[in-house]
């Protein structure tokens, strides 16, 4: 009986249990279904939303490359600076411990701001305006050095904090400023900074990881790192010290004559490397707005002008090359010369002289030059001028091309076939002039000018800029003869002031009339381009002063040339040879001392 | 299970119910009948004791481990922040010194320093040819008043805004002794360069933004 009762009780029990179990199972199924719905199917995209909520992507900024001079000295670099930012809602009176006594002291916001004003060298009013208010983010001061920002934070003003920023620094200031260029708020604006931005800036990296609710990284979750590729350093051919010296020299000269601008450029004539490109005024890349717009880019590139008598060198070189002239050929030169109904006159009223071609060149007589150039057909002359680089843009990797305007002979007016022989009727930039002189002095081989020496990777690997092979324009013999003619200019011609004691120096002076805005000539361009040492020409120095004030016979740029050339020769270890001049005689007969 | 289930059964009936309510010999008989079911309990209880003890010990151990890990992490985080600050301070002082060197290397600063030392522009130099003893060129004495021009503005001293105003008496004591004229004058005119950056404190710098701190005093562990 007991067994039956037990059996019955068990049946009841198992029945109830089954109900319970079914209930549990149903609930489990519901939950399971829901779980599958949420996790497996995820129609609302919750999993993705959760991951993106957890995922943090931090950019790893690439380090911007430096700009270096030829010796590796830093012209532009990136430094860490701090922007001082305040959360105005948090600013209030605060407590801090006095350094001397160790006691707590109450500090009002006003006192805090006054102390900050002392650290930052700003007025209290200005700072109050930026610190007191409702804004959650207000910039108090930009680009502070770490030291300054530390001092500012030590005051302890609540809500004040420092945000790190990367800033461009130019340790040498305005030295080579127009070449380096400068940065604007949104990126590079001028010069190497802009033209070589791709190499300098590198590629930013990225770091991706997941964080938990407390902002701490989940160690086992996604982690990816794309390392930043730092920018390359750009090494220029410019020598910082020489650049500074040239800038000082030309500024002194332009200042002396109150000229519109002056430029001094130094070239290694065997390699075409630009060692210095100095303007009378130069932009400081840190403060570009403070300099006149004219001086924010290199004048040697941006300014083209009529070269004047320096252009005679091309006429003489082509006459020698074409075989129509020997340096010692005799000419009878008056101060006026009539040809094709045009009158060509010289700058001075000299008596009629029996001169050699070298003498005409040394004294820079227009009349004699036209006699020599007239022997060569216009087309041939034009062709030679184009071959030394005139009439086409010249690019040295600075983003700006140097311009030169030379019309073809068909478009020349009645006088232009004469004026182009002595450097009028076409325009050149300083770099065009140097390119032409480089060709004449480098054994007749035209080597392209360049400013960028090499790109240096972050790990120090150097990528030198490939140079194009030079192109021969004149024969070596012509080049030799031209060097002796150039020497005559410094020996007894228009450039005697250019002589550097102990060295053989040559060159060519030029005074050109400068065309005004309304047509016609209303100013002058005074220039001298010279080379040394003539035993084995290495360096070309060009000095140009545009629109000097005063009387033309008083202007002298050869002293600036001598200053710069002396510096170049001694700092580049060129031993003085003391060799005698090898210039041709300037006059026929015994008397070499003729009146001007 | 059945032993425990019995009280749940409906009203107690029959000998089993009676035997439960009657004390004495009848109970002995009843207990004798049910004893095999109950005998298992003490054993079970003993096993449970060990299990519970084990679980508690495990929990305690886990708690200790978690606590230890957390304490270690927190401590490490302080060390990390301290080392980071030290690293930052060193990087910054290194950078400040580099900037100072670059500034002093600039041609303008060199020229100023040279003038401060009483140097002037050179005059013409002569050279001696070693092979034949010939003197090339004529040497001239330099003009003591020929200081280099300064048309090119000196670069801004890094952080110059924060530099203390120039104290002339300090400059005089800083000037090399025994210079007259241009050199001495220059030391008075020119600010001694590199005034800033000399005292780059190695102290820690709390350069953390509120978001980084997230209400705390040091930032949460991160990569930077």
UniProtKB/TrEMBL annotation, chain A:
It comes from the Bacteria. Residues 60-185 form the Penicillin-binding protein dimerisation domain. One of its GO terms (molecular function) is penicillin binding. SUPFAM superfamilies: beta-lactamase/transpeptidase-like, Penicillin binding protein dimerisation domain. GO terms for biological process: cell division; cell wall organization. It is found in: Membrane. Residues 264-565 form the Penicillin-binding protein transpeptidase domain. Residues 585-596 have a biased composition (Acidic residues). Residues 574-596 are annotated as: Disordered. Its main location: membrane. InterPro entries: Beta-lactam/transpept, Beta-lactam/transpept-like, PBP_dimer, PBP_dimer_sf, PCN-bd_Tpept. One of its GO terms (cellular component) is plasma membrane. The keyword Membrane applies. Belongs to the transpeptidase family. PANTHER family: PEPTIDOGLYCAN D,D-TRANSPEPTIDASE (PTHR30627), PEPTIDOGLYCAN D,D-TRANSPEPTIDASE FTSI (PTHR30627:SF1). This is Cell division protein FtsI (Penicillin-binding protein 3). It comes from Nesterenkonia aurantiaca.
UniProtKB/TrEMBL annotation, chain B:
Keywords: Membrane, Transmembrane, Transmembrane helix. It comes from the Bacteria. Residues 189-214 have a biased composition (Polar residues). The chain crosses the membrane at residues 51-73. Residues 1-34, 189-224 are annotated as: Disordered. This is Cell division protein FtsL. It comes from Nesterenkonia aurantiaca.
């Amino acid at each position: 009986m007991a067994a039956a009762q037990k059996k019955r009780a068990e049946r009841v029990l198992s029945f109830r249990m089954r109900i319970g179990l079914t209930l549990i199972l149903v609930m489990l199924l519901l939950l399971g279904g829901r779980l599958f719905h949420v996790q497996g199917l995820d129609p609302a995209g919750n999993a993705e939303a959760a991951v993106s909520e957890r995922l943090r992507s931090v950019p790893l900024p690439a380090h911007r490359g430096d700009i270096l001079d030829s010796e590796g000295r830093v012209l532009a670099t990136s430094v860490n600076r701090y922007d001082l930012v305040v959360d105005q809602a948090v600013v209030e009176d605060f407590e801090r411990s006095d350094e001397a006594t160790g006691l707590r002291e109450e500090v009002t916001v006003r006192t805090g701001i006054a102390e900050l004003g002392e650290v930052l060298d700003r007025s209290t009013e200005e700072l109050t305006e930026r610190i007191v208010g409702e804004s959650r983010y207000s910039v108090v001061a930009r680009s502070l050095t770490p030291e300054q920002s530390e001092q500012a934070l030590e005051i302890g003003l609540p809500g004040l904090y420092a945000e790190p920023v990367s800033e461009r620094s130019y340790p040498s200031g305005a030295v080579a400023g127009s070449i380096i260029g400068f940065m604007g708020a949104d990126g590079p604006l001028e010069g190497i900074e802009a033209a070589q931005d791709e190499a300098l800036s590198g590629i930013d990296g990225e770091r991706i990881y997941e964080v938990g609710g407390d902002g701490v990284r989940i160690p086992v979750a996604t982690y990816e790192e794309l390392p930043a590729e730092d920018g390359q350093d750009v090494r220029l051919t410019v020598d910082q010290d020489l650049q500074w010296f040239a800038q000082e020299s030309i500024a002194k000269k332009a200042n002396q004559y109150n000229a519109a601008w002056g430029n001094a450029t130094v070239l290694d004539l065997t390699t075409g490397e630009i060692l210095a490109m100095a303007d009378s005024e130069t932009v400081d890349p840190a403060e570009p707005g403070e300099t006149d717009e004219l001086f924010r880019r290199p004048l040697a590139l941006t300014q083209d002008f009529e070269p004047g008598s320096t252009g005679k060198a091309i006429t003489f070189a082509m006459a020698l090359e074409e075989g129509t002239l020997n340096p010692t050929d005799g000419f009878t030169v008056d101060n006026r010369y009539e040809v094709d109904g045009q009158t060509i006159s010289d700058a001075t009223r000299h008596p009629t002289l029996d001169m050699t071609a070298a003498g005409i060149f040394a004294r820079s007589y227009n009349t004699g030059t036209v006699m020599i150039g007239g022997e060569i057909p216009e087309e041939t002359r034009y062709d030679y001028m184009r071959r030394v680089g005139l009439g086409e843009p010249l690019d040295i990797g600075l983003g700006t091309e140097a311009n030169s305007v030379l019309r073809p002979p068909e478009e020349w007016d009645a006088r232009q076939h004469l004026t182009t022989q002595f450097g009028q009727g076409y325009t050149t930039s300083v770099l065009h002039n140097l390119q032409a002189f480089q060709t004449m002095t480098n054994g007749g081989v035209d080597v392209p000018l360049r400013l960028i020496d090499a790109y240096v990777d972050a790990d120090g690997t150097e990528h030198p800029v490939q140079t194009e092979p030079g192109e021969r324009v004149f024969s070596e013999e012509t080049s030799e003869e031209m060097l002796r003619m150039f020497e005559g200019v410094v020996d007894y011609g228009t450039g005697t002031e250019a002589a550097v004691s102990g060295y053989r120096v040559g060159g060519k002076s030029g005074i050109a009339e400068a065309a005004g805005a309304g047509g016609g000539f209303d100013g002058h361009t005074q220039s001298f381009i010279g080379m040394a040492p003539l035993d084995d020409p290495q360096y070309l120095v060009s000095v140009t002063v545009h629109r000097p004030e005063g009387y033309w016979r008083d202007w002298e740029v050869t002293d600036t040339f001598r200053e710069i050339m002396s510096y170049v020769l001694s700092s580049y270890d060129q031993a003085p040879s003391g060799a005698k001049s090898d210039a041709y005689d300037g006059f026929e007969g015994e008397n070499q001392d003729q009146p001007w | 299970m059945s032993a425990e289930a019995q009280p749940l059964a409906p009203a107690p009936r029959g000998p089993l119910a009676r035997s439960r309510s009657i004390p004495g010999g009848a109970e002995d008989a009843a207990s004798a009948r049910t004893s095999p079911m109950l005998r298992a309990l003490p054993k079970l209880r003993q096993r449970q004791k060990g299990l519970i003890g084990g679980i508690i010990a495990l929990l305690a151990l886990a708690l200790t481990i978690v606590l230890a890990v957390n304490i270690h992490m927190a401590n490490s985080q302080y060390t990390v922040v301290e080392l980071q600050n030290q690293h930052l301070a060193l990087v910054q002082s290194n950078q400040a010194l580099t900037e100072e060197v670059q500034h002093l290397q600039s041609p303008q600063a060199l020229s100023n320093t040279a003038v401060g030392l009483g140097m002037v522009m050179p005059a013409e130099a002569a050279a001696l040819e070693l092979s034949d003893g010939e003197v090339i060129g004529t040497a001239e004495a330099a003009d003591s008043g020929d200081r280099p021009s300064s048309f090119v503005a000196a670069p801004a001293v890094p952080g110059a805004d924060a530099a203390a105003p120039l104290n002339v008496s300090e400059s005089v004591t800083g000037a090399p002794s025994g210079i007259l004229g241009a050199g001495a004058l220059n030391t008075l005119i020119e600010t001694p360069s590199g005034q800033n950056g000399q005292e780059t404190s190695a102290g820690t710098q709390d350069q953390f933004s509120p978001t980084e701190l997230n209400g705390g005093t040091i930032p949460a562990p991160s990569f930077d």
